[in-house]
């Protein structure tokens, strides 16, 4: 296999590199705080929700920025050296999640959402904006300029399958260790 050096790193010769702005629909979340309610029908996706893999939840009664199944959501702001900056969440169900401010949606009809989640999650391009001193705010224009490596759709699916299987195996081993 032949490789090439690109803005997205070293990748196979037949892959392409495109920016997020060229490849994905980018949607910013909106403030849902006025609608937070224990009896809300929508899960508010904020940085705490994403950084805890969905275990910490708030609910709201109005959904100003609905996420769809297959969307990749990403945290755009975090404290210096925080664990949430650029962390991603893959939406598993439509009409369930309300995307809050400082979280964005990446939406695509063509690219495999699991592949995108792995490529974008804590991507080094985004992490370079964290200076370790001040709160980091990823701005829309730099986000759109992020280069991503894009293999064929079938390769994206195969990569997504393999990484999902590996994640599931690791989670199962961690549960077994905790049980022992």
UniProtKB/TrEMBL annotation:
Molecular-function annotations in GO: endonuclease activity; hydrolase activity
Domain of life, per lineage: Bacteria
Coiled-coil boundaries: none
Organism: Rhodococcus globerulus
Enzyme class: hydrolase
Record protein name field: Restriction endonuclease subunit S
UniProt entry keywords in alphabetical sequence: DNA-binding, Endonuclease, Hydrolase, Nuclease, Restriction system
EC number from the UniProt entry: 3.1.21.-
Domain named Type I restriction modification DNA specificity: residues: 12-177
SUPFAM superfamilies: DNA methylase specificity domain (SSF116734)
Family: Belongs to the type-I restriction system S methylase family.
Taxonomic placement: Bacteria, Bacillati, Actinomycetota, Actinomycetes, Mycobacteriales
